[in-house]
Write a structure and sequence with these properties.
The structure is a single chain. This protein is mainly alpha-helical. The chain is built from 14 helices and 2 strands, in the order αββααααααααααααα. A two-stranded antiparallel sheet has the order 1-2. Helix 3 packs antiparallel against helix 11. The protein is globular.
Amino acid sequence: MATQHSRLAARFMVAPSVGFLFVWMIVPLVTTVYFSFLVYNLLHPERQGWAGFDNYYYFLTDRAFLTAVWHSVALVVGVLCITVVGGILLALLLNLPFWGQGVVRVLVIAPFFVMPTVSALVWKNMFMNPVNGMFAHIAKGLGLQPYDFLGHAPMLSIIGIVSWEWLPFATLILLTALQSLDSEQQEAAEMDGANWMNRFIYLTLPHLTRAITVVILIQTIFLLSIYAEIAVTTGGGPASTTITYLVAQQSLYGNDVGGASAGGIVAVILANIVAVFVMRMIGKNLDA
């Protein structure tokens, strides 16, 4: 009886927060769905009318949409490859005993706390600037022609910037998982003659499977909504426009609330499809 009363009390106390969060999420979603069926432009609010599925049709048939989908996939896959592989290597390195280990760990994790806009500005002006950037000065010092990263390889440049932002997160998760690895298994394998490669493949890597799965799931969700890095560096040029930036471009610059709302709903649906697909493909590792 006491257990039932405690459960009711817990639900009663949690109910206001859950209700507030529900309203906080459902109201913008319902409003977006409503506007997606309207002809509504901020420059001509008097022309508001019912559009049906026209906004969805125009958004999905636009050639920029397929290009944005490809760019979004390339961004997510590229960043995941760099952060997962780099995170494993950094985690292995930081797990070794050396002088100043604590300071180095803090420095490695620090970039994750830098705002995306700030990190994009730093990379754009201090590193990738073809005139005054650090890479340009290094190229000149070696007698080479400076390379305009954002001008000639915008998507690869954005992938590099976003990877720099998310690499500390992957490293932290993987390092935490690595520290829970039983050292006795490693010592036993070493005594049996297993070299470092075999120990990594058959002991370390299987142990990191769940941590890698968590990194992929969380990063995939957030990488699908990347906007600041693109807006600051390339301004959403044709070679770097993702679905999120395409929707923002249509709403902020085109003032087309109806079309942008339809694009937003399409983006939400695609993001949920990707999330479900990823969960079904690799999420089973979480239950192992």
